[in-house]
Design goal:
Elements (H helix, E strand, L loop, with lengths): L7 E5 L2 E8 L7 E8 L6 H8 L6 E5 L5 E7 L3 E8 L2 E8 L9 H10 L5
Antiparallel strand pairs: 1-2, 2-3, 3-7, 4-5, 5-6, 6-7
Amino acid sequence: VLKPKNWLGQAIEGNDLEIMFTPDSGTGDFMSISAEAALANQTLQAWAQSKAGGASLSALTLGKEAKITALQSKTADAHTIFAKVNNHFIKSTYHIETEGSAYFASTYLMMLNSFSLLN
């Protein structure tokens, strides 16, 4: 995933499957991406719904080349994208500190559209 040069990207609690991206500003906003191996016959819809905590989901397409089919959930304090890439489910969340102030919405979209899973 591409990120702005001055943002910090680091594994959360030593888990290489969950990465947090923090901007160099004091907004309190941050982004996280986590991966989970897909179980046999598990659909993106079922997996996403289990992670969305009852929030409604809508369809979304990501990526310039791969056109990753994804689902999104928007709440006041987070904007979460669920996708399936190869045999992994991906959950990406933009955590918004102040309700209604998504300071990095364009950056988040750029990061999502640059995402690819290396073999």
